[in-house]
Fold these 2 entries.
Entry 1:
Amino acid sequence: MKINREWHLKNKMPTNPSFEERVHWHIEHQKNCNCRPIPEKLVKEIEKKGLRF
Ligand SMILES: [Zn+2]
């Protein structure tokens, strides 16, 4: 697993993020870094809402 530290420093997860903020963060995260996958719970919620990424 590789950490893109530079990306993480520039893109901090907001405090008390909304669902959309979390989804957005994880989508951008996945594009730039693969230190961890999108949490399964979040993936399920995305699918439930029919969001695409
Ligand atoms: Zn990462």
Note: Residues 3-4, 8, 29, 33, 35 surround zinc ion (CB under 6 Å).
Entry 2:
Amino acid sequence: MTEPLTIYGDPGSGNCLKVKWVAAHLGIPAVWRDVDVPGGGTRRPEFLTLNPAGRVPVVVLPDGAVLSESNAIILYLAEGSALVPAEPLPRARMLQWMFWEQYSHEPYIAVRRYQLHYLGRAPEDLDPKLAERGTDALRLMEATLARSAFMAGETLTLADVALVAYTRMAHEGGFDLAGFPAIRAWVGRVEGELGIGPYAGPA
Ligand SMILES: N[C@@H](CCC(=O)N[C@@H](CS)C(=O)NCC(=O)O)C(=O)O
């Protein structure tokens, strides 16, 4: 790829940052276009023409093809790279964690963060399931990372990119990582490998 692709994203969104990080890590030229999610940018008619699902991230490839869903986008970008294991079982293990991220991690940790941090809702007004299920997700990650350096084994894969996105911001969702030492060490390893530095608020 020599022509840049365009990433439509909100810099406060972990789902969008996944795409930015993978493109940068792999040296894929990319132009970032801000879409203001809290300001309703994903619901404007011109954006809905691009992605009728009304969500970021969205990528427009150099040939004009449009792709959405963060984990589908990063898989497309990283095919053939060291971020995607070539062998079927390690590849499936990576995908296992990427699907898990979308169904069992992001809907609790990212959603609680959005409600607290962006919508300014009080913790007592939130569905308690968000904290319970988010903590369950962190416990499973902690147990996994006590056994291996990365989520799908001993090397960085897209599973780590997908999961680090909201785990490193989990404190903004009211999740205290103090009791999860293996996760904290892993966040540092992944940030180091991606060259993104420690989380210091929306980029
Ligand atoms: N499963 C999607 C989730 C995308 C998503 O929920 N994006 C949020 C920002 S993180 C969004 O665009 N929300 C805008 C809206 O719901 O109007 C992905 O991984 O890309």
Note: Residues 5-78 form a domain with the Glutaredoxin fold (CATH 3.40.30.10).
